[in-house]
Structures are given as structure tokens and as C-alpha cells.
Amino acid sequence: MASNHQNHLRVPIPEDQSHPKQSSQKEEFDYSQRGQWLRAAVLGANDGLVTVASLMMGVGAVKQDAKAMILSGFAGLVAGACSMAIGEFVSVYSQLDVEVAQMKRGNRMMENQEEKEKEQLPNPMQAAVASGLAFSLGAVVPLLAASFIGDHKVRLGVVVAAVSLALVVFGWIGSMIGGTSMVKPCFRGLFGGLMAMAITFGLTKLIGSSGL
After folding, report:
1. Res 212: pLDDT
2. In angstroms, rounded to a whole number, what is the distance separating the alpha carbons of residues 53 and 60?
């Protein structure tokens, strides 16, 4: 009897779950590290697209001159890129000052943790450069779209189409890099961009036709 019981004994061997956990932690770490520059880049690209395209659509609502549209778009590119870069630099630097002060108050700058803490701090210059370059990249799209079209109405349509496509592409790129759903970011960016262009065009057309 004792021999039969001993033959049926089974020793449970716990499954090694360390690898999936480590993989999950590594994946989460990668996405969190991407968050800072991704946020600045996506925000800058969308702002460049929407701001410059809306500005050009507003000018195109009252003037059919292609040169006026392109010059206004170029001025918006330069002003917007500088504004985005400076604003991002000031904002992130303020965040950096707060985090450093909090670390010092909590006495968390120990020798074994100092390097790790520094790596996790925001980089103001990186955020500023990413934001300014991304704005310029987005702003180039409507400028190029309007540069080679002679007919006024066709030019406006091409600008809207090019900006809409670029908004979807930037939304898709952001979702792929950030590991999020693709549909919602693309739809939000496209809807917001079309609304901004339509409102700017309509209000400028209204004010221009009123003789102000």
C-alpha cells in the first residue's frame, strides 16, 4: 500500500514566470522613455500642419495670389517653430527645476541612485529641438502643396488634401511608436485639423467680405 501511494506522488514544479514579467517591464520602460520626445514631436508636427495650413487658408479666403499664401505660410513656419521651441524649453526646464528641488528635499540623490535619477530627468534642450523641428516639418507640407498649383480653387483643395493626409500619417506614426491604438489618434488629429482650417477660412472670408 505504501509503495502504491509513493508511486502516485507528484511534486508540483512552479512555472518560471520571471521572463514574461521581465519582458513586460522592459516594454513598459521603453514606452515611458519615449514619452518625452514623442509628445513634443507629435505636438509640434500637428501644430505646424494645422497652424500654417489654417493661416494659408485664411489668406486664400480673401486673396487669390499664390505668393501671398506662400509668404504668409513661411512667416507662420518661422514664428511658430521659434515659439514652439522656446515655449517647450521654458516649460520643460521649469519641470526640471521642480523635480531636482524635490529630489534634494527628499534626500534621494544617493550615490547608488544618482545616475539613474539623472537619466529620468527631462531634457529641456532635447524637447525644444524636437518641438521646433517637428513644427517646421509639419509646416512644410501645406507650403509645398501650394507652391506648384496655379489655379486658386485647386490650390486650396490640394492644401486641404495634403494636410489631411499628413495628419493621418503623423497620427499613425505616433501610435506605432507609442504602442497605442491607431484609429483614435488619427481621427482626432484629422477632425481637429479640418475644423481649424474651416473656421479660419470661414471667419476670414466673412470679415473680408464685410469690408473691414
Report:
1. 61
2. 10
